[in-house]
Specification:
about 30% helix, Rossmann fold, globular, alpha/beta, about 260 residues
């Protein structure tokens, strides 16, 4: 593992090792709030937390060579990654982003159709849908990289989201659609980098982690995640996320 710049010391509060995911999330939310590192929207509990220096972390991430040839990147819609989304649009890179809780599927932000003066607006959760257009699964573009929001990470590439599993599910949907394995990245504050916490086999692992102070590359890169474990999905998932029923029907029609 290597960093693109010297590591800057970040004063931590013990503990940094956790045997429970919920405790790890709670510790990060508390620490960011206590140190006044958290930024709007508040409260940060139960959110992908916005943080001081999110713009610097985004610039550091986008400077990674993996983005140099990217044409389309899937990015989460949360506040700290708004700077990533704006930066991608400025580079002429298309963005696929999910609607909250996948209730409305995905939409595409095409930089060729969004005036430069509206890039920041288009990169927001509130207005992204106004500038984007819905994507049918059969017209889903090839994704070159995935950027996920995180509550906590480790230097070995483990990631904690809010606990609902949407980011992992969205990656699994890409696999189901036949997308090639791609690197997964995130931006976080240094206080969100923990020593350890539990991980499950289906948890997507990170390849690139950018903080305001450093870039962490997980070496060797973790294995790509798998597809959807259809038998484990609760029945209400299809009602809450109609796109899952659409994907299941698409798989059925294309089954050999």
């Amino acid at each position: 593992m290597k960093a693109s710049s010297p590591r800057t010391h970040v004063r931590h509060a013990a503990p940094r090792c956790f045997t429970d995911k919920a405790q790890a999330r709670a510790a990060v939310w508390h620490l960011l709030t206590e140190r006044k590192i958290a930024r709007f929207p508040f409260p940060i509990k139960d959110r992908i937390p916005n943080f001081e220096g999110a713009d610097t972390a985004a610039a550091r991430l986008l400077a990674h060579p993996a983005f140099a040839s990217a044409k389309c990147v899937k990015v989460n819609p949360d506040s700290p990654q708004r700077h990533v989304r704006k930066g991608l649009l400025e580079r002429g890179i298309s963005i696929v982003t999910p609607t909250p809780r996948l209730r409305g599927g995905f939409y595409l932000l095409d930089p060729d159709e969004i005036p430069e003066e509206h890039h920041w607006d288009a990169a927001s959760l509130k207005m992204g849908g106004e500038f984007g257009k819905p994507i049918a699964l059969e017209e889903f573009p090839a994704i070159d990289l995935v950027v996920m929001g995180s509550v906590a990470v480790t230097r070995e590439g483990r990631r904690l989201g809010k606990g609902h599993g949407y980011a992992d599910l969205e990656y699994a949907m890409l696999v189901e659609l036949g997308n090639a394995p791609v690197p997964v990245a995130t931006t976080v504050h240094g206080l969100q980098v923990l020593e350890s916490f539990p991980a499950l086999p289906h948890d997507v692992r990170l390849s690139i982690i950018a903080t305001p102070e450093e870039l962490i590359e997980v070496l060797p890169p973790p294995e790509a995640g798998g597809g959807i474990e259809w038998d484990t999905l609760p029945a209400q998932a299809y009602a809450e996320m109609p796109i899952l029923a659409e994907l299941r029907e698409l798989r059925r029609r294309h089954a050999p």
